[in-house]
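Postdoc handover notes: sequence design on the structure in folder B. Input tokens:
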């Protein structure tokens, strides 16, 4: 038995599956969980790969430590989406963190991940973590100048995630950030989501002074060449705390100070797609 993700009839990914562990239609999306032959448990939403036990570390380390090692003393972080808990687990590796708020629209994702992905949900009951299950867009409106970092750990720009790729959303993010804060959002693949990358980085550039796309090699996402984009009025991912980055790297399987620098080097075809300002 194979799980197959089709990339817009252009290509597809196949993963050998031992058995299906769970399937349901939640209020928001189709949730499937499989036991794969090689990658451990696999979560898909509306038929798209979100994570596997074996490769999730790449995405979660890169969406968290790049911005966190750039902020001098990160204390308060908001994760929009991220219901599997992987981003929260990584954020809590930073000693200065006092509060992590996770706002996931679909509580069923978190409930099921607690059963099938204990390695990503393992820190969700830490006393510094506050969980909310509601629309992230609306939730954030209640905050002003509060967070050092806001991470958009969303699914793709289809279904419930679509509003998280638009300028109105980035304006709300900016309001909820402290003046010296930074946001980072997963920003898709330059091979299959060229238009999304152009429009979302353009929208970020309308709101923030510095927009910086970087690369993470996520094996099971379309093409494997995945991007994340950070935006801030004052911080630049180039100016990071190398010493703290090296310390965090001791706990990581992908992220380290050399990766931090190298991830910012974009191939020419990617530079031509994004509207980066730095
Ligand atoms: N095409 C898959 C993009 C999914 C990005 N978010 C995954 C959530 C992992 N925490």
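Designed sequence:
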């Amino acid at each position: 038995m194979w799980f197959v993700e089709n990339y817009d009839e252009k290509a597809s990914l196949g993963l050998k599956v031992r058995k299906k562990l769970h399937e349901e239609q939640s209020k928001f999306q189709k949730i499937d969980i499989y036991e794969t032959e090689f990658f451990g448990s696999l979560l898909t939403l509306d038929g798209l790969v979100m994570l596997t036990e074996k490769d999730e570390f790449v995405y979660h380390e890169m969406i968290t430590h790049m911005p966190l090692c750039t902020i001098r003393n990160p204390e308060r972080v908001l994760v929009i989406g991220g219901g599997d808990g992987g981003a929260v687990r990584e954020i809590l590796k930073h000693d200065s963190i006092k509060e992590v708020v996770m706002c996931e629209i679909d509580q069923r994702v978190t409930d099921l991940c607690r059963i099938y992905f204990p390695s990503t949900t393992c820190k969700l009951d830490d006393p510094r973590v506050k969980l909310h299950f509601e629309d992230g867009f609306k939730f954030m409106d209640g905050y002003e100048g509060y967070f050092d970092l806001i991470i958009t750990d969303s699914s793709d720009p289809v279904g419930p995630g679509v509003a998280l790729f638009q300028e109105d959303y980035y304006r709300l993010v900016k309001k909820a950030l402290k003046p010296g804060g930074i946001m980072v959002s997963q920003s898709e693949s330059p091979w299959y989501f060229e238009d999304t990358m152009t429009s979302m980085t353009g929208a970020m550039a309308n709101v923030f002074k510095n927009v910086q796309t970087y690369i993470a090699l996520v094996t099971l996402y379309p093409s494997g060449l995945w991007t994340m984009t950070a935006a801030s009025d004052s911080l630049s991912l180039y100016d990071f705390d190398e010493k703290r980055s090296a310390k965090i790297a001791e706990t990581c399987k992908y992220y380290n100070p050399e990766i931090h620098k190298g991830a910012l080097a974009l191939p020419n075809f990617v530079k031509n797609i994004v509207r980066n300002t730095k």
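Context for whoever picks this up: DSSP finds ten helices and twelve strands in the chain. Don't rerun without checking with the PI first.
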